[in-house]
Every structure is written in structure tokens, then in C-alpha cells.
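Q: Here's a chain of 221 amino acids. Please give me its 3D structure as C-alpha cells.
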Amino acid sequence: MRFTLPDGSTESVTVHTLLNAGYAGRSQDEVAAHVAELAELGVPAPSVTPALYPVSPYLAAQTAEVPVQHGRTSGEAEWALVITDTGEVLLTAACDHTDRELEVHGVAWSKNAAYDVLAGQAWRLDEVEDRLDALTLRAWAGDALIQDGTLADLLPPRYWLDVLRERELAGPGTVLLSGTIPMIGGVDQFAGHWRVALGDPATGNTIELGYRTRRLPDPIG
């Protein structure tokens, strides 16, 4: 994967460790309420929160198209930490595309059913860290705004960097997605295209990604 930085330079990463955080809201009381809501929909509760799910590294993608097996899949607006081949820590926009039918059987399984889409631009973490909580995170399902929050809603990158260090995973080739923010009620999440924007109000800069889903052919047998 290759990322363009604000100064026009690029950084590369060969992904060998891909991780998805879950139930990673800054307020764990709100997370507990969300876990209870999901349980009513049949989604199994995690044994601990926040959670961290290993994902097959080939599912990290910079792509405009996500193949899906059916119509009940949807994205989740997230930020991603990327540790490049030179050890630089980058922050970018990401979308964890998730199989909602599979999610009721196991969240970890659902995370491995579709791509984690990452933007092609990034910021150096240390250059935005003094204003992280003010950074905005938004997503659109189709043309409808479905998520709208800030990074203050989620556990900060340094929390997850500490977790990676404890697990000896904080090296080149690691990519970690943050977990997501709440969805706006009444919006159809099963849209055919998704867009995510990570914004910096202090500079007016925005990192965006967008993709369409493509239904795979029906199986034979």
C-alpha cells in the first residue's frame, strides 16, 4: 500500500498484520449499552471491551470496488493507524466493510468477509496528535450521511499503540482500524456505495475514500 502525505512525499507499507478494534468508544458505559442493543439483534457479545480482531492481511485494500456475497453488507467509518516500512506512524481514513448476516454468528468472522478499505492519503500521527479529538469522521451510505462524529468519540491512537507494543506488534507492516462511531438512525446502511471522510478543521484538509460494492455471481451447488 502507498500513502501520499501533505508535503507530497509518499510512504509504503507491506501489510503483514491487520487488526480491527471493536467496541472502542471512549465512553465504555455507552459501549456497554450498545453491546446490549446488539445482543437483542442476535450479535454475540464480546468477552471483553474494547475488543481486537485479527484480520487476514490481504484484506487491507486501496480500492474503488468491494466484492460482496449478498445485499446485507455495509461499511463502518474508522480511522486507521499504519506503521510503514520505514517505521513511520501514519493516520488515515478507513472503512471496515462488514457482512451483517455473518456478524450474528461471530464478529471476528464477519470482519474477515470483506475488505478493510484505506484511503490513499495520510497524515503523520505526530503532526496532528495535538488536535486529534477535534478531527471529524463522517460516512455516507449512498448519498445519505450515516455517521457523523469526531475522534473524541473513540479511544485514541496512543491507546492502541500501547496495546500493539504490549503484544509486540508495533512494527512495520501493522495496520489497525479504530472501531467505529454510532450510525444515524433511519438511514439505509445497505447502500451500493460508501464514502468516508476524515477532516482536520484546523487546516481544512480532508482525507477521503469511496467505493462501490459488487455482488458476486450466485454459486452453483
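Q: Can you summarize the key feature?
A: Residues 2-215 form a domain with the Fumarylacetoacetate hydrolase; domain 2 fold (CATH 3.90.850.10).
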